[in-house]
Description:
By secondary structure, the chain is an alpha/beta fold. It has 2 domains: 1-104 and 147-173, no CATH class; 175-411, Purple Acid Phosphatase, chain A, domain 2. It is 43% helix and 14% strand. The strands form 2 sheets. The chain has a 6-stranded mixed beta sheet with strand order 1-12-2-3-4-5, with helices on one face. The protein has a 6-stranded mixed beta sheet with strand order 6-7-8-9-11-10. Strand 2, helix 5 and strand 3 form a beta-alpha-beta unit. Helix 3 runs antiparallel to helix 4 and helix 5 runs parallel beside helix 6 (240-247). It is elongated. The two termini are 57 Å apart.
Amino acid sequence: MVIVFAVLALAVLVTANWYLWRRLFRDTTSGPGRGRRAGVVVVAGGWLLAIGALVGERTGAPFWLQQTLAWPGFLWLALSIYLLLGVVAGEVVRPLLRRCLERRDRRNAPVAAVAVPRPEPVPAGPAPEEPAEPASPRLLAAPSRRLFVSRVVGGAAAAAAVGTVGYGTYGVLRGPRVKRVTVPLAKLPRAAHGFRIAVVSDIHLGPVLGRGFAQKVVDTINSTQPDLVAVVGDLVDGSVKDLGPAAAPLSQLRAPAYFVTGNHEYFSGAEQWVEEVRRLGLLPLENARTELRHFDLAGVNDIAGESEGQGPDFGKALGDRDTTRACVLLAHQPVQIHDAVEHGVDLQLSGHTHGGQLWPGNLIAEAANPTVAGLERYGDTQLYVSRGAGAWGPPTRVGAPSDITVIELASRQA
C-alpha cells in the first residue's frame, strides 16, 4: 500500500511539474532553444534542492550543508505551489484574453474599397519599361496571438507567485505579531482575574530560522509582560549540537516559562532538548502537573513520542488532581482535546497546525485537526490553538500570519 501511494504521489508530482514547465517555458517560446532548456534546469533543479533540504534535515546532514540547501530548496517549494496555482487560474483567463484580441483585430482590420478600372489608351510603339520596385525592408515576424497570450498569462502568474512568496517570507522574518485573547474560566478565583499567559508554539529553529529569530521571539514575549510563558512544542528542527546556540536567547525570558514537546522534538532528540531547555531555565512538563497559586498547570508529551515509549499520559498528568481547581493544559496537538475533555481540563493550549501556513494548506489542516486556529469550546473544555511563531520548511506564510498569543484569564466571580 505504501509503495502504491508513493508511486501515485510521484506521478502527480511529475505531471504537475511537466504542466508547469509547459505553460511557463514551452508555451512562451517560439521553438526549442535555450529558454526551454533553462526551464528544465529551473524546475528540476529546484526540486532537487528541495528534496535535498528535506532529506538533509531529517538525516542530520552537516549543518552547513543543511543551511546551503534550505534557503533555495524550501523557497522553491513555496514558489512552485503558487506558480502552479497561478497557471491553473490562467486557464480561465487564457480563452477570455484570446477572444478579446480576436475582437480587437476584427474591428481594426482595413476594409478593401471596390473600384471599377477604367481602360487607358495604349500609346503606339514599344511599351515603356516599368521602374523597378525598391527592395522592401525585411519585416520581423510578430509572435502569434497564442504565443502572446501565453506570455502574458505566464508572466502574470510568475509575478503573482514571486510577490506572494516574497511578502509571505517577509512576514515570517520580521517576527510574530502579538494577539490578545480573553478566556473566562468558571473555576478561576477572583484573585487570578487578569492572569496573563504568553503562548508561543512552532518556533522551528533550524537551518533557516536561527538565533536572531529566537531573539525576536523572546523580545516580543518580554514586551507583553506576561505572568507565565507557555512554549507548546516544535521549538526546533535539529540537534542540540547544531541549534543549542540558536535557542540560547530563551534564557532571557523574564516570566516563569514551561515547555512541552512537539512532534518535531522527537525528530531532533527529544531527551537532549528537554535537558537543554531545563538548562536554559524553562520547566519541562513531561506528563506532569504543577499547582500554581490559583490554578493547576499541566503538560503532556506529544503523540509522536509514542514511538519512543514517551507518549502522552493524561492519567499521570491529571489523574489525582483537585477537580475544584481550574486546570490549564499544555498539549502540542489540538487532537489531544478529546482526552482533555475526559479529564476535566478547563483550557487546553496548543499549536502544531501553523494555521495551514500556506494557503490553501488550511483546508488540509482543517481535515486533520478539530481546530486550526483560535478559540473553540468542546463541552466544558476550551481549546486555544496558536498559528505559531515560526514556519516549517519554507520560511513563508500566506493567509496564516505568525503570532504569539497573550491569553488573559478571566474569573466569572470578578
